[in-house]
Each structure stands twice: as structure tokens, then as C-alpha cells.
Hints:
Six copies of one chain form a homohexamer. By secondary structure, chain A is α+β, with helices and mostly antiparallel strands. Chain A has one domain (5-137): 6-pyruvoyl tetrahydropterin synthase/QueD (Tetrahydropterin Synthase, Chain A). Helices cover 29% and strands 32% of the residues of chain A. Chain A has four helices and five strands; from the N terminus they run βαβαβααββ. A five-stranded mixed beta sheet of chain A has the order 3-1-2-4-5. In chain A, β4 and β5 (133-137) form a beta hairpin. The radius of gyration of chain A is 17 Å and the shape is elongated. Chains C and E meet through α4 and β5 of C and β1 of E. β1 of chain C pairs antiparallel with β5 (133-137) of chain F.
Amino acid sequence: MTVPIVDITHREDFSAAHRLHCDSLSAEENLALYGPCNTLHGHNYGVEVTLRGPVDPVTGMVINLVDLMRVMREEIFDACDHKFLNEDVPWLVGLVPTAEVLAIAFWDRVAARRSDLGDSEMTRVRVIESRNNFVDYHGPS
Amino acid sequence: MTVPIVDITHREDFSAAHRLHCDSLSAEENLALYGPCNTLHGHNYGVEVTLRGPVDPVTGMVINLVDLMRVMREEIFDACDHKFLNEDVPWLVGLVPTAEVLAIAFWDRVAARRSDLGDSEMTRVRVIESRNNFVDYHGPS
Amino acid sequence: MTVPIVDITHREDFSAAHRLHCDSLSAEENLALYGPCNTLHGHNYGVEVTLRGPVDPVTGMVINLVDLMRVMREEIFDACDHKFLNEDVPWLVGLVPTAEVLAIAFWDRVAARRSDLGDSEMTRVRVIESRNNFVDYHGPS
Amino acid sequence: MTVPIVDITHREDFSAAHRLHCDSLSAEENLALYGPCNTLHGHNYGVEVTLRGPVDPVTGMVINLVDLMRVMREEIFDACDHKFLNEDVPWLVGLVPTAEVLAIAFWDRVAARRSDLGDSEMTRVRVIESRNNFVDYHGPS
Amino acid sequence: MTVPIVDITHREDFSAAHRLHCDSLSAEENLALYGPCNTLHGHNYGVEVTLRGPVDPVTGMVINLVDLMRVMREEIFDACDHKFLNEDVPWLVGLVPTAEVLAIAFWDRVAARRSDLGDSEMTRVRVIESRNNFVDYHGPS
Amino acid sequence: MTVPIVDITHREDFSAAHRLHCDSLSAEENLALYGPCNTLHGHNYGVEVTLRGPVDPVTGMVINLVDLMRVMREEIFDACDHKFLNEDVPWLVGLVPTAEVLAIAFWDRVAARRSDLGDSEMTRVRVIESRNNFVDYHGPS
């Protein structure tokens, strides 16, 4: 009999400022491209990370949720909460901090902590920017 | 290095009346089939459309969210908000407006605007009918 | 020592169609007054009823929540769920079923069942029409 | 032309107590493994079951939602609501009631009622343990 | 018989950056006082405005919700959405944009449009800064 | 000119088990009185504490939210999260832990820390037991 595979998801929330602005474009191009998002503003972000793995037959867990929570807090929350994403987060500097770019960056941050996350594989990072908009990244193909 | 692929989702809400009733069935059959949904009633509907595509290395975006928002408002919100779905929406007349049928119809409406949505492909339409019920359509197979 | 006074609130949800239309006005006046709400549409309604009363020192309860739930289901849910409020609910016929009017009507329905609700007094009926709009009625002054 | 395939999801909520404790481990090992979850506590659980199937061209439905609702209430809600999952639910006794284990058990309970669920196949059971944590099970592979 | 009095509430959402910093204090004092909020960050804000008034016996309304919506969009949303509250909103410049200060400022903005809001009186402005924090202002005493 | 008075509310969430059972009643009476709540079960509780006070003209705050958060975590979260309320929380032992009784107990816990909460007065404790049920306590009269 095969061991069941389950996805486990944890969410963390943080509040940050950002501005969509691309240095290689002119002010006019930036405004045309990003519209109101070109102006400095901010969000309450939600971030969900999903890990997939076999359910340990003894513990009943894919992974200890405490471990995922700690990794997410250290890699995402501590770096981004109450920050200006364009300038205060070293690994975002020089990027345009769209939700898409954040999802990829968060994936990479958590992936670098793989050794703390047992046998599971990461299958999704969701970044929720507002109650009507979110993105999902499923990792490099 | 491959360009990352991300899913981006936008949600719009509208309020509408509907009634589940199939003209090819008798009144008794309709009542037996649809139960209380056979009576005229209504919902606050949520509609999510998900587009998948490569993240533009310059803009950091799969698509300009403003474009998706505009398409959804023109094709879905303007047609359905504060309407009686069975009678007021030309492209729903003659259909039984279940959440399943709405999801397929909304997919077709947005797909017809593909030229406004860049290189992305649509991967999901979710119709949320109430806080306990929703459907997902992933397109024709 | 005085007995503590606590407010207890229960929520029920129902889905219904309605139309804002006043028979004493012309079609043009109705449209000008109610705008898109003049057209048949619908909502997922949330209704909260709040009762205030002393906390029974033995049971720790203001009222048995089961009693409030039963009254709300019998008086509100059973009458309104999956209905067309303008025509299917006898005690709403002839009224314009705005959220304001519903709140007052629901208050009266629950108040008529006072004998089933112990020593508490009703202090508020909230009708939530959508995620951005709700009304509160605190009873006749 | 192929018949469209749609996923339909229904959610039920229940409130239960549980404790993560593995009989084959010592008290110290249990505490180290489960941390605060080793202590008796509880949750408002949300359970979503998703069925996938062709949309009936006559009825516009994958399945009658009433059938899914009834199966979920009989198999999940009636068994688990206002219960101590470790002791009161016969088919959970001897298991560690993590969200992962619950998702698998709920899958099996609903799958055993397949004959009540038409031609659809179950594709997902989601167990929402709190507003920041949930798991998904997609069935035996 | 008296005319029933009802409270009607509308909510608008906007996304903005802010920073809690008081010019009359030193950098150290600001940091000690505001902690992480002293750094530039942002939120998805929700704003609720509540109007109280008699229910018009003909229309069934306290006020036309469209009027309240328009006032809130013009006075709050248009001024604050996708803005840096400390610098981009003229009537906030020089203030510390805490939720408390925003609630008072929004009250004043809406109150100045009283002539567009019929016979109702404003009774509450709620500013929701995150899912765990909000403030209510009931007007000058 | 008078200083504006604002209410500020913070929410904390915890997960706990409880059972409604009154030692002075027989098993039959308990079952008749509390129904399914007489059985051991649990909830994800939300607790909101509201403080009212003048907005400091310099800081723009009624109180430093960090102080309220710390008091709520120390007095409520640390004591109740992942606990069995009937037995594990010393100041609840011997009480029937209904939402009403919890609200009163939480009020008393926070009130005892008044010296940490500046000039504000506490005006409300809300205990949210599930998505359809909550209670409010406004303090001893």
C-alpha cells in the first residue's frame, strides 16, 4: 500500500510599502505601464507556502508545521513586515516588486531552507495582494 | 535559464437573481431536480479568472492587471450585475444558469477577448455562489 | 454584586432575489430613484440578531443559543431562503425590500417570538447585503 | 464537441476537540514532536470536498449539490461536530488526528458513498484547521 | 407611530503607504514610540462610514446608497488609493497618519459633504488597518 | 476645542477545547441544557478588546497598539491557546466556559492590567466562537 501524499499550507501576513517602477524605463513609460501602481503605496500581504509530501505513518504529519512557520517568519515576515520593499529588502532591491516577482523571490528564499523542511517538496507560493488579486508560483519548470 | 511562469488571478463580484429551471422538463421534474433552487432567488457572486504566463523580465508582470480587470468588468460585471440571469443576459438565455454553466459562459466571454490579454493563457474560472459553494472550470479539454 | 450583562449575536445566511420598486412611483421615477437596484437581482444575505441580558449564574448563558437559532431559522431563513422577497414572503408583499425594510421586518418577526427568548431583550438586527453594505436596526424608539 | 468538465466544491464546518499524541512514543517524545498541539485543544474546522465531472447538458449540473451536502453532513459533520476526535469518532480512534490524517479519513468516508455521487470523481479534500493552516488531499496515487 | 431609525454602512477599500513619524520628536524618540511602524510600510485599508436616519416611508431608504458611495469615493478613495499618505494627501500632510488620525480626517471629509447626504447624521467612521486592528470614531463630542 | 475620542480594537486568535457542563446539575440536566455543547469539543476563538480614549495630539494615538497586543497575549493568548479551558486555565476552573463567561473573564484579566494601558478605558470585549456566533461584554454596570 502506498503512503498518502498530502499538501500542507501555512499563511503569514505582513504589511509593506512598494512602488512599481522600472529603472530602465522613462517616467512617462513607467506611468503608462503601471498606472496608479507607479506611485508609492502599500498592502497587507498574505503569503501562503504549500509543501507536498508523504504523511509519516507514525506522526500523521507531512512536516512539523512549526518548522514551516519558522522558516516563513525568518525568510519572509522578518524581512518584509513594516518595510519598503523596493529599498529595505536587500534581495528585492533592483527588482520591480510586483506580486509575481515577490512570489518568485519568496519561493527562492524558502527553497534555500529546504534542509529545514524535511522530505517535502514545495509546490506553490501564493501572494495575496488585496482581497481581489493574488498570484501563484509553482516553481521553476 | 527559463523564464518563470506565474498564475495571476483577479476577482470581481456581482449581485444577480437566477432560477434553476429546465424548459424541457415538467414543473414536477424541475422541482424534484432543483429543489429550492427552482424558485427565483439570487446571490452575491464572486468570479475569479486566472491567467498563466511568463513573467516579463522588464516589467515583472504576467499581464497588466488593469487589462484583466477591464475585460472582466466589460464581459461579466456589466452584463450580469443587478440582473436576472435567466432573462436579462442574452448569452445566458435558454441555458440553466447553474454555477457550472456560468463558469463555462464566463470562460467563453473572456476567451473571446484573448487579444486584450497578451501572451497569457486562461487556466481557470471560479464562480463562488455562496460562502460554502463554488465551481472551477479549466477550459475545454 | 450585579449580574453581568452580555450581548449575544447569532448569524444566519440566506439567498434571495429582490427588486427595489415602489408602486406609487412611475417607471421613470423608480429607475431614477433606485438605479440598477430597480432591476430584478439578488443577494446572499447575512442576518445577525443580538440579544442582551444577564448571564445566568448557573448556566453561564444569556440565553440558550439553540433557541435563538431556531427562532431565526423559523422566522427568517425558512421564509426568505431561495425566495423572491417581493412576492414570495407574505409579510414583505407591498413593501420595498431594501436592507432597511428587511431589518425592521426581521426585528418584528423575532420580537413576536419573545416568549421563546427568555429574559433577554433584542438590541440589534443587522442585515448584510453584500461585502460592502449593511444596515443596523436597534428597534422602535 | 466534448462535454465540459467542471469541479464543484462544497464546504461544511464543524467544531471539535483534538490532541496530537502518538501512543507509540513517550510523553517526552510526544511533547517534543507536537509541542503545544500535544495538549488537548480544539478548532472550528472547515472541510471542502471537490467533485469533478461532465456538466449534464440538460440539467447544467455536475452533480446535485444537495447530494454532496447530504453525504458530507452524514459522513463528516454528524460524526465530528461537537466531538472529541481522538475518542468519540470510531473511525479516528487509534489515529493521530492531524489535519493530514483527517483529510485522508474524510476522503475515505466520502469515497465509500460514491454510489450517491453520480458519475463524478472526487479530486480534493481540503481541511482548514485555522485561518492560517490547511491541508489538501488528492486521493491515493 | 414613530418612523423607524436605521443605521446604514458602506465600506470602501484602498491601498496606501504610510509611516508613523512625528516631526517634533527625535529619530530615537520616534523609533521608541512607533517601533516598526516608524518605517515606511503600507496597508490595504477598509473604511466604513455609517449614517443614521429615519427610513423614508415611500422609498424604504435612509439614504440612497449611491450617494454615500459617491461621497466616499470622491473624498476618501480618490484621495488616498495608491498614495503615500504622509506626502500625497494634502489634508494629511503634517499629521501622523495613524488609524485614529485617519478616522478623524475621513469623518471631517465626509461631514463637509453633508448636503449630499440627506437628512441622515453620521454616527461612525471605522478604519480597518489589518485583519486584527481597527478604530472607530463617533464624531466630535 | 475638545480632543477627539476614538475606540481602538485589537484582535487575537487562539484554539482551545471546552465543554459546557455545570457540576451542580445532573448528567441528564446538563445534556438537556447544553445539548451537543455538553460534549467535549473546541473552537478557534477570536477575541477583540476595545479601548476608548482621547487621541494624543502629538503621537496621534489613543494608546500604543503594541501595549494592548502584549497585554492580550500575556493575559489571554498565553493562558488559553492550545488548552482545555475547563481544566488548564486556573482562573476558568469551576466556571462553565460559555462565550459569555469567557468575555467576562477576559475583561477582568485585561482590566487588571489597566496600568499598562494608559489613560484609555476598556469599552468592549468580543468573543467570537465561530463564524456565526459571538458575544460582547461592555463591563460591569
